[in-house]
Specification:
Elements: E1 8-11, E2 18-22, E3 28-32, E4 37-42, E5 52-60, E6 81-88, E7 93-97, E8 102-106, E9 116-121, E10 126-131, E11 135-140, E12 145-151, E13 159-163, E14 168-172, E15 176-180, E16 186-190, E17 197-204, E18 210-216, E19 221-226, E20 238-241, E21 246-253, E22 258-265, E23 270-276, E24 290-296, E25 304-305, E26 307-312, E27 322-327, E28 332-337, E29 345-350, H1 353-370, H2 402-409, H3 427-436, H4 439-446, H5 451-459, H6 466-476, H7 481-497, H8 499-503, H9 507-513, H10 515-526, H11 528-550, H12 569-586, H13 593-628
Parallel strand pairs: 24-29
Antiparallel strand pairs: 1-2, 2-3, 3-4, 5-6, 6-7, 7-8, 9-10, 10-11, 11-12, 13-14, 14-15, 15-16, 17-18, 18-19, 19-20, 21-22, 22-23, 23-24, 24-25, 26-27, 27-28
Helix pairs in contact: 3-4, 5-7, 6-7
Subcellular location: Nucleus
InterPro entries: SSU_processome_Utp12, U3_snoRNA-assoc_WDR, WD40/YVTN_repeat-like_dom_sf, WD40_repeat_dom_sf, WD40_rpt
Biased composition (Polar residues): 571-595
């Protein structure tokens, strides 16, 4: 399979028991189709080889060891070994071992100047690859290097398939070109596709006729090409119709000449065609005999589930079955089914693989939590093993007195520099929480607000725990205000303490790591100006209310004046004058001008009354004198 398809995938040659696929990130996954389990997952070294862009299965026959006369006749024969040949983004070829679960060999020699677009195996120890540099390379598994190459341009090749009978290599681009692998010459060309070939497959009939099946991008047809090693610009022998674009093809020929073809389309439907090899015609288009569509068993709505790949079962007891996988690239379910050719559409109701994997993961976590136990850590030097020797021959250890044991059990807080207690540090708790991913313990440690405790904890934190701590702080900073305050305090001390460790990382990796924290900080700073304006207005209103409350006038009488009765009016006048002066002294400075004017008028009236009294008194005295005379 090649890079040009939606998936880089393929079934194993041992009846499809294994299925290998490469996702968009170049990660290889190997599935067991019988048990529906992920057997292996491999992430290549991006610096050495780069992501995987093409794959093919390689079945290597095991070496038969020489038996001696003394060897038993019942000795088991070594089984054949399965490998996966991977084409990389950097133009090289590596061999992945299923037994060891890693890259076993890197083929040396010449390589492509660009990514490998497709790879094929001839079952005789040779690999053929084509790349973006428009070259075809031949690799020897025995010599572990590239042995020859030739040009296949000028069009960029997308897919190749090896034809064992004619010893030719079919290269698909916009045209289909057939090259002789021995002479490296172009022997045959086919035209008919308007776009680049998207998927390719080959089939050999019972009469040794070889056919190549291709489908192109932006086309809804499958073309049959008969290989005869002669001719140019030849047309297709037969054309099959589809409802959508296809990215996976598989075929099978029975002994009676019946040909079965399956195509997996872009919308996740599998089309199955039944043909007779001897009656292929280019004049009439062939429609699918039946189609398979997988849907979910939801209670509310019925949603389609996409099929990813299909393969015809080669077992004689199950020759009428078809093996297919459905789901997504990370969660795939496989099933074998016998299609009902009497119906045009076979609807298969199955559970969504996402729900199955989620349920299975939940059960595994519950089981692990139930069986989670703490194993005691025992020093091997203290363990005393039972033996058959008498007690006198055993090594008798001196018992420590109970008083000494109790003294050792006492916890003494040791002081560090500047008078800080070592017990304030929570480094061990933080390391244990990050290692076990215990969220409750992580929240308990990160809820610390004491800056000295945070500094002591981060000073002794190893560098391998810095990245997990940054991730936890990024999650915490998205929560409530109290959590944000604590997270910012931890992040500030962490950036000051482990600055060198953070700056030593790649700029892009550091940006991705601190991206959430920077985004939250930028969002909160965006509202800072509005918040400050609102806070200033509220403070101004509060200050004005306090000022008005402090400056109110007293409503109750503060000064009470009591007048005493005197015999002489002059004393009364003087006392009233004194009372008026005292009232004027104790009165506040804010007395209005009207009250002052009223007091002046009252004083004038008193003076006039006094003058009238004096005049009357003098008048009475003169009358008395006249009477006496």
């Amino acid at each position: 399979m090649s890079q040009g398809k939606k998936h880089v995938l393929g079934f194993s040659p041992n009846g499809g028991q294994l299925f290998a696929s490469v996702d968009e990130l170049g990660i290889l996954r190997v599935w067991n189709t019988e048990t529906n389990t992920l057997k292996q997952e491999f992430t290549p070294n991006l610096q050495l080889s780069g992501p995987c862009t093409a794959l093919t299965w390689v079945l290597v026959a095991a070496q038969r060891p020489k038996r001696s006369r003394k060897s038993l006749s019942t000795q088991e024969e070594p089984s054949d070994q399965l490998y996966i040949a991977l084409g990389t983004l950097k133009g090289g070829v590596v061999i992945y071992s299923l037994a060891e679960g890693k890259i076993e060999r890197n083929l040396s020699g010449d390589s492509h100047d660009g990514p490998v677009t497709s790879i094929a195996y001839d079952n005789a120890g040779l690999l053929y690859t084509v790349g973006a540099d428009c070259r075809a390379l031949v690799w020897s598994l025995e010599k572990e290097r590239c042995i020859s190459d030739w040009q296949v341009g000028p069009e960029k090749p997308r897919n190749i398939v090896y034809l064992p009978k004619s010893r030719t290599l079919a290269v698909g681009s916009r045209q289909l070109k057939v090259y002789d692998v021995d002479t490296k010459e172009l022997v045959e060309t086919f035209t008919g596709h308007s776009g680049e070939v998207n998927a390719i497959s080959s089939v050999m009939c019972t009469d040794n006729d070889e056919f190549v099946l291709t489908t192109a991008r932006m086309e809804r047809v499958i073309c049959f090409w008969k290989i005869e090693k002669k001719g140019k610009n030849k047309a297709s022998s037969c054309t099959l119709l589809m409802e959508d674009l296809a990215y996976c093809l598989s075929s099978e020929v029975h002994d009676d000449g019946q040909l079965r073809v399956a195509s997996v389309t872009r919308n996740g439907i599998i089309h199955i065609y039944l043909l007779n090899v001897n009656s292929l015609s280019a004049e009439k288009f062939v429609k699918p005999k039946t189609s398979l569509q997988i849907v979910s068993d939801g209670a509310d709505t019925v949603e389609p589930i996409h099929a990813l790949a299909s393969h015809f079962v080669t077992d004689t007891n199950r020759s009428h079955e078809i093996l297919f996988g459905y789901g997504n690239r990370k969660q795939i379910q496989f099933e074998r089914i016998t299609p009902n050719y009497a119906e045009k559409l076979n609807v298969i109701v199955r559970a969504d693989p996402k729900k199955l994997y989620a349920k299975k993961k939940g059960k595994e976590q519950a089981l692990q939590a139930a069986h989670k136990t703490l194993a005691p850590v025992v020093s091997q030097k203290i363990v005393e093993y039972n033996s058959a020797l008498p007690i006198s021959q055993k090594k008798v250890q001196n018992d420590v007195p109970m008083e000494a044991r109790l003294q050792h059990l006492q916890i003494k807080a040791t002081k560090q520099g500047a008078g800080k207690l070592q017990t304030q540090s929570k480094t061990q708790l933080l390391m244990q929480a990050l290692h076990s991913k215990d969220q409750a313990m992580i929240d308990a440690v990160l809820s610390t607000h004491d800056k000295e405790t945070i500094q002591l904890t981060l000073d002794r934190l190893p560098l391998e725990y810095v990245n997990p701590l940054v991730n936890e702080l990024s999650i915490l900073i998205q929560g409530k205000h109290a959590n944000v305050t604590s997270a910012i305090r931890w992040l500030q001390v962490l950036a000051c303490t482990h600055t060198s460790a953070l700056m030593s990382e790649d700029k892009q990796a550091l940006r991705e790591k601190l991206g959430i924290c920077l985004g939250v900080a930028e969002q909160r700073m965006h509202c800072l100006s509005d918040a400050l304006q609102i806070s200033g207005r509220v403070n101004l209103i509060i200050s004005q209310m306090k000022r008005n409350a402090d400056n109110h006038l007293n409503e109750s009488n503060v000064l009470i004046v009591e007048e005493e009765e005197e015999d002489e009016p002059a004393d009364t006048q003087s006392d009233s004058a004194k009372g008026d002066s005292n009232w004027s002294d104790l009165e506040d400075q804010n007395i209005s001008l009207n009250s002052i004017a009223d007091e002046d008028l009252a004083a004038d009236d008193d003076v006039a009354a006094d003058e009238d009294d004096l005049a009357m008194t003098q008048g009475s005295d003169d009358d008395d004198d006249d009477l006496s005379d």
